[in-house]
């Protein structure tokens, strides 16, 4: 059902997005005639852009992932807009931006248009072209088509030029600066892999001898208390990793074994399996409600959670999601558009 409110909001957004995209394109070609690497040169070779800042002796970065399948450039593309809002919050917003010049990498698979890459790059993100990551033989059955490309975000584990990366889904609202997350003990201290033979599967690649994976659990719904109660399942939208090609090789070996993990929730189910709590590489959780909450509500906002994870723009969520974070997200999007209009006109 399309409500009148939805039509109005979408039309406004389409007009705003089209106008700003035209302005941006014009500005880009006017001031930046060089063209970044062409789509045809996309490979698994990852460029290192600028030397990443060193914090506590570690090279650190933020990262996100855009895999939109909207190819008509004049069509409203909420995930592209969400990536722009995220980049604005991490790099430019006076309250939430990085104080330490920590870069934002955005992974993009080959089907994301050059036009969208250029806009994100012109707004400060570092575009990292990557190939899709899929099992050698198809066996996955994701809950929705939207999850098809989600394993691709694991390519972050191959970026060994960084010591720590905070991965953040693009449907995220920030309430404060995230830089201090890199000072958390659960981010600095590397874990030693266990050796319980009962947890070693002979058809999987060997585990690395050390690892680091710190995340948040799924809160299970919008009516959770504050702080939310920690569960055993990893939420794939917010996690801190130490890039390690041996760990990526392990994940790929798991991905290539049909039904080794339930595939409905794709990469987050695989991560929950690989880092199961009774296995040899158990995951660690951030303190609940401190850095991130999924299914957020007003109590999370009042409790000071740094990032709130949801598709705030989606009117299908309107009957259950708390209005407060929704209204905050729309204000953040408007602030982002106003910021770039001021810079570019
Ligand atoms: C692209 O989207 C616009 C806006 O929705 C629409 O008017 C146009 O017909 C579409 N073009 C194509 C080729 O589908």
Structural summary, described in words:
By secondary structure, the protein is of the alpha/beta class. Helices cover 30% and strands 15% of the residues. The strands form 3 sheets. Strands 1, 2, 3, 4, 5, 9, 10 and 11 form an 8-stranded mixed beta sheet that branches. A 3-stranded mixed beta sheet has the order 6-13-12. A two-stranded antiparallel sheet has the order 7-8. The two termini are 38 Å apart. The structure holds 2-acetamido-2-deoxy-beta-D-glucopyranose. It comes from Eremomyces bilateralis CBS 781.70. This is Nucleotide-diphospho-sugar transferase. Keywords: Membrane, Transferase, Transmembrane, Transmembrane helix.
Supply database-style keywords.
345 residues; alpha/beta; Spore Coat Polysaccharide Biosynthesis Protein SpsA, Chain A; 3-stranded mixed sheet; 8 helices; globular; binds 2-acetamido-2-deoxy-beta-D-glucopyranose
**Strand content bin:** 15-25%
Query: Would you identify the regions where 5 or more consecutive residues have pLDDT less than 50?
Result: 1-47
Identify the CATH class. Alpha Beta
Cα-to-Cα separation, first versus last residue:
38 Å
Gross morphology? globular
Small-molecule components bound = 2-acetamido-2-deoxy-beta-D-glucopyranose
Number of helical stretches of at least 4 residues: 8
CATH architecture verdict: Alpha-Beta Complex
Helix and strand pattern: HEEHEHEEEHEEEEHHEEHEH
| Number of discrete domains | 1
User: Could you please say which CATH topology applies here?
Assistant: Spore Coat Polysaccharide Biosynthesis Protein SpsA, Chain A
Rg result? 20 Å
Report the count of strand segments: 13
The CATH H-level homologous superfamily: Spore Coat Polysaccharide Biosynthesis Protein SpsA, Chain A
Return the average pLDDT rounded to an integer: 87
User: Which class of secondary structure composition applies to the elements?
Assistant: alpha/beta
Helix content: 25-40%
Largest sheet: 8 strands, mixed
């Amino acid at each position: 059902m399309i409500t009148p409110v939805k039509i109005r909001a979408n039309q406004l957004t389409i007009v705003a997005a089209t106008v700003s995209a035209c302005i941006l394109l014009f500005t880009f070609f006017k001031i930046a005639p060089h063209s970044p690497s062409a789509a045809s040169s996309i490979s698994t070779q990852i460029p290192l852009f600028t030397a990443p800042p060193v914090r506590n002796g570690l090279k650190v970065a933020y990262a996100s992932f855009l895999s939109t399948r909207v190819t008509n450039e004049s069509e409203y593309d909420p995930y592209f807009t969400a990536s722009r809002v995220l980049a604005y919050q991490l790099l430019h917003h006076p309250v939430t931006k990085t104080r330490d010049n920590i870069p934002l990498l955005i992974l993009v698979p080959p089907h994301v248009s050059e036009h969208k890459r250029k806009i994100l790059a012109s707004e400060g993100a570092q575009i990292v072209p990557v190939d899709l990551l899929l099992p050698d033989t198809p066996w996955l059955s994701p809950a929705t088509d939207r999850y098809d490309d989600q394993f691709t975000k694991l390519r972050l584990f191959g970026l060994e030029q960084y010591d720590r990366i905070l991965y953040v889904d693009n449907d995220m609202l920030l309430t404060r600066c995230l830089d201090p997350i890199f000072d958390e003990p659960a981010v600095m201290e590397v874990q030693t892999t266990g050796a319980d033979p009962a947890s070693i599967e002979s058809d999987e690649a060997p585990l690395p001898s050390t690892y680091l994976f710190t995340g948040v659990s799924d809160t299970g719904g919008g009516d959770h208390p504050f702080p939310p109660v920690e569960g055993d399942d990893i939420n794939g939208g917010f996690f801190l990793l130490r890039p390690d090609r041996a760990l990526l090789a392990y994940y790929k070996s798991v991905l290539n074994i049909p039904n080794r993990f339930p595939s409905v929730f794709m990469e987050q189910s695989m991560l929950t399996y690989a880092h199961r709590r009774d296995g040899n590489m158990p995951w660690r959780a951030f303190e609940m409600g401190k850095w991130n909450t999924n299914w957020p509500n007003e109590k999370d906002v009042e409790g000071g959670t740094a990032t709130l994870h949801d598709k705030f723009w989606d009117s299908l969520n309107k009957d259950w999601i708390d209005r407060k974070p929704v209204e905050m997200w729309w204000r953040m999007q408007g602030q982002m558009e106003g910021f770039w209009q001021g810079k570019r006109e």
